[in-house]
Write a structure and sequence with these properties.
The protein is of the alpha+beta class. Among the domains are: 76 residues; 167 residues, OmpA-like domain (60s Ribosomal Protein L30, Chain: A, 2-Layer Sandwich), CATH 3.30.1330.60. It is 73% helix and 10% strand. The chain is built from 9 helices and 5 strands, in the order H-H-H-E-E-H-E-H-H-E-H-E-H-H. A hairpin with a 2-residue loop joins strand 1 and strand 2. Helix 1 runs antiparallel to helix 2. It is rod-shaped.
């Protein structure tokens, strides 16, 4: 602003001087003009100096502007770096969160691993205890092995002496084995014979049953006779009314033909015992019979004995094939509380049994 004021003053001075020259053609030189000219020169110098200063200042301003621009660029770079740092901070924050999660997961894993480690340590302790127990057992086994080795050495020292005894025992066992084998062969032979006999007996039994059914078809149809079989035992049951009067052991005349036909079947089987069993229903009811047969045992026995005597004397049967016995009222086939049941229980059973099964002496021989 000061330079501008100086220039305005200087311009005004020049204008004044120009006006004065036009008014007077031959003015005298005013000493003040020289002073003014000196002042103008000084001002001009000052102006020149100021222009130089202005140039310098402008240069400095440019330099400062350049510095400002450089600083702005630096600021932008710093701002970019700050943004990068912010982004890095955000990334680091995310990484930190992730890291925190990883740390938590790692801590959980560490706890699980610690639990597994504790379990492994416990298992290791158990294994060590088990190993100690096994070592104890091993020591015991080792001692037992040592004892056995000592016993073996002792036995080996006496082996030569005992070898002859062992050989003798072995020879005796071989002899016993041979004898047992002979018995086995004999038993096998007997078994084969028995099987053949059993097959033959089965056929004979079936044939006798067929024969009996044919011979006594009427009696079977009338209910006076029935035929039963238990394994290889044949049982022919005859109602007492077909053989005896009530409460009596005397045979009816009509009995003769029936017993004669039965004897023909029995005589055709000499290998069988005929066991004649007298069966009653209840105690004897007739007062006359009670005098002779006070119990059902007595009546059943008398009836069986009379039938056996008839088969021997009148039918010609071998008495050694006959057995007479009484079962009284104690082997019922039906309920004795009804008349129908009593009628079934009053009977004579002819039981055909193989001789070798029935006879006691032969049973003893088989047992031996």
């Amino acid at each position: 602003m000061r330079i501008l004021k100086v220039l305005l003053v200087f311009g005004a001075v020049i204008m004044i001087m120009s006006c004065a020259t036009q008014a007077k053609t031959a003015p005298q030189e005013d000493p003040r003009i020289g002073q003014l000219q000196g002042q103008v020169d000084d001002l001009q110098k000052q102006n020149t100096a100021k222009d130089a200063t202005i140039g310098q200042l402008q240069t400095q301003a440019k330099n400062l502007q350049q510095q400002v621009n450089d600083k702005d660029a630096t600021i932008k770079q710093l701002q970019a770096q700050q943004d990068d740092l912010q982004n890095q901070i955000a990334d680091l924050t995310t990484q930190k969160n992730n890291s925190d999660n990883q740390v938590a997961a790692t801590n959980d894993r560490i706890e699980k691993l610690q639990a597994e480690l504790d379990g492994v340590k416990q298992d290791d302790a158990d294994k060590i205890a088990e190993l100690d127990a096994l070592n104890t057992k091993l020591a015991a086994l080792q001692k037992t092995n040592d004892d056995l080795s000592a016993n073996l050495a002792s036995l080996q020292s006496g082996a030569t002496k005992n070898q002859a005894d062992y050989l003798a025992q072995f020879a005796a066992l071989n002899n016993e084995k041979s004898a047992l084998q002979d018995k086995i062969n004999e038993l096998n032979s007997k078994q084969a014979s028995l099987e053949i006999a059993a097959q033959k007996n089965e056929k004979d039994l079936e044939a006798r049953i067929a024969q009996l059914k044919s011979l006594f078809s009427k009696e079977i149809a009338d209910g006076d006779l029935d035929i039963r079989r238990f394994r290889d035992i044949l049982i022919v049951s005859v109602k007492d009314s077909a053989l005896f009067p009530p409460d009596s052991p005397k045979l009816l005349p009509s009995t003769m033909a029936l017993l004669k036909k039965l004897s023909d079947v029995f005589k055709a089987a000499p290998d069988r015992i005929v066991r004649i069993e007298g069966n009653t229903a209840v105690a004897v009811s007739s007062p006359e019979s009670l005098k002779l047969y006070p119990t059902s045992w007595h009546l059943g026995a008398a009836r069986a004995a009379n039938v056996a005597q008839f088969l021997q004397e009148k039918c010609g049967m071998d008495p050694q094939q006959l057995v007479a016995t009484s079962l009284g009222q104690f082997s019922p086939r039906a309920n004795n509380s009804t008349e129908a049941g009593k009628a079934q229980n009053r009977r004579v059973d002819f039981v055909l049994i193989a001789r070798d099964v029935y006879k006691i002496d032969q049973l003893q021989a088989v047992a031996q």
